[in-house]
Amino acid sequence: MLVIFVLLLLYSRNLLIEMSVVEYDFTVRSIPSNPDGYPRSVTIMHHTNSSWNIDRPFPCPTIRARLGDLVRIQIRNLLRDQSTSIHFHGLHMFKNPWSDGTVHITQCAIEPYENFTYEFNITQTGTFWYHSHSAQQYADGLIGPIIIDGDPIEHKYVYDQSNDYVIMLQEWYHDDWPTIMTAYQGPFDAYPGFRPVYPWPPTSFLINGHGQFDCRTTDCTGNMTWKDSCGYEYPAQCIPLRASFFGRCNSTAHSPDEFLCPAGKQIRLRLINAASGIPFRFWIDQHNLTIVARDSLEISPINVTHLHIPIGQRLDLIVHCNRIPNFKYTIFVASRNSYKPPQNITGQTPTLWTWAYLIYSNISTDKRQIQSLDESIIDSENPFFEYEYLKPIETRYARRAIRRVTLAFEVVWNNRTRIDALEEWAVNGITFEPPKEPLLHANYFDGTLQHSLADERIGRVNNIHATHVHYFEYGQTYEILMINYDPQLHPWHLHGYSVDFIAAGKIPEFKPRTCNRTRRETNEDPYDKLLPPLNSTPVVLSMGDSFNIPPESYVVFRFTANNPGPWFLHCHMEWHIWPGMALVFSVEQNGRYEDLIHSPSNAIPICGRRKYRSTKARLPSLVSFSFK
Ligand SMILES: [Cu+2]
Q: Which DSSP helix (H) or strand (E) runs through 183?
């Protein structure tokens, strides 16, 4: 990292802020590694001027800056056969969608052997993360933490810098994601007898890129199918597949991580769920957790014995080191099915878990306290945890909304038709298709998205395929009602914003599914009775950018459209985006972004239809990136 202290002094709210330019130069490549002991190819990013960490190639390097800094990140793509892009999850890129890093939406993919530079001002503090936003690439390893120093937690809670830990959680597979997606989305009877394979279950869980896989498990003939709620049976992934192409599996390749908790002190844990399909449970034997921030925003502190964390979310925790110091205490990371980690529950969602240790000194005895929580005293199944418990630090009221947008989503299975893939997802009946060029380019250069939208086509299961966009007028406040008709939870993420959640609950008057997969029509009447009027200012339950929508439930949020540009709203289960569980919020003024956002660098690559048009792209006239 290169920090240039240019000592730019800016006047901001009458305060002098010292602004630095923080520069990174990263290279993306694939290497062999064995995160859980099973060797395979992984996709990583490392400092260009130094080699990668052989033992722990990911999480990739931490990006660290302060409020007001200008961050410049050059990405060199040395992957031989994949394009890439980097999304800075939770950073709003205020009036600067050029650096949001979402392929198809805000930029062209960074092709093999090409470079791209992200440049943005830091306008928020706290815990964030970055990941590839190109295909399912981040699930192959391209993830890393972002820490913006100077947040309120630093000032309010006492802990040493050396006891400020990032804990990134992932689930892990033994095949790479291009292969997994081909199996999942491959057509029925691609060859006689082929059935699409659901990307479940994962083989292991990783804490900061390390896990332990039991290499003795070699039998692949067991009960590797699962049934959906309509009784259809699907092949599941076989664990552990086969001998690795890359060499021997070694269960003890990595010993569990240890986190030092000095007796009598406090530590900070920055918990980040960087999984591609798993909501995690997290707890530490014998220790209470104080949640102090959610999605980088300080919350009213709450003490819990355990917590749920959906994909994409960040929870900052303070832990008191106040137990008997000569024990090791287990840090548990489990799937959401059970708090009884050693027990394997067979069936659709087998319980997986992994662990690390909390130690009080580097000479802690090896006597371990292993004791799972007493399920009788914890609310282990509350799916509305984040809406009930993660409250803003001060009482906050949502702004009046001018309009409600309802987004109802469901799976539209294809197993009946046995044509194409296993499943497609639809939001309001629309299965998302990428546009013909990045939406940001279309609007900025031509003033309209229309010609960039994918050609609509009729789906096979009462759905249509289209580039699903909702339009919002700059400066206005809107209410979004999201309805999950599916019997599983989905973790959603909105780019560009933190939103105010004002309601969440089970779907009123819910009718069980009929299994014939006709599209559900949403009746808004029950919601009109249930929800506060649009012109009211209800109390905000929680704020964030990454949120869980529980099974057969609804979640309502309000947001003020003050950040112009095309912002992706999508399920963060990686295998749900591609089959269509996504849409775009386009925040514009009179249909345009141009006068509201910063100018792009004159070097932004163009792609898609623009590349082949006879008239040249209208390139910006400014020679350098400017901040208005
Ligand atoms: Cu999903």
A: helix 177-185
